[in-house]
Amino acid sequence: VDEHTSDEIVGLVAEGAADLGILSGHVDTGALRVFPLRHDRFVLVTAPGHPLAGRAEVSFAEALDHGLDRASAVSRFLGERAARIGKRMRLRVRLRSFEAVCRLAECGLGLGIVPESTARRAARSAAIAVVPLSDPWASRDLTLCLRDLAALPGFTRDFVAHLRDGAGAPGI
Questions:
Q1: pTM, whole model, 2 decimals?
Q2: 3-state secondary structure 71-126
């Protein structure tokens, strides 16, 4: 398992360097087979006492004004979004997991942007506030892509079936 941006994943799967990939957002997948998995959105996570914590939603631009902690390949995506609105991300920390971002936010050491599914799971055991981002791009669909299901090893086909079952998608 390796992490890349959606565009990179499409290239790796198309070249045969990866068996399958999970994509977020709208990406040209060419001749690859794609299967919908689920819908998710980016949210802001912060300590409950932070000024943004009680908000119904917050814009990405406003979150940038407060500084963000950095997590995984999402940082490149968010950096591009910041540049589009003429802002720069002021990153304090680079972390390799969304869960670590949530724990840092819990301690009041910064803000983070993570997928809502991750934030809701973390909120079960961490004292964090979860605030939806109001930007349209923050809402995304996750899809599975692959070249040829029949050509995959049995355990990989089982994994695909497991992902699809978890998504409530019809069997393949």
A1: 0.71
A2: ECCHHHHHHHHHHHCCCCCCEEEEECCHHHHHHHHHCCCCCEEEEHHHHHHHHCCC
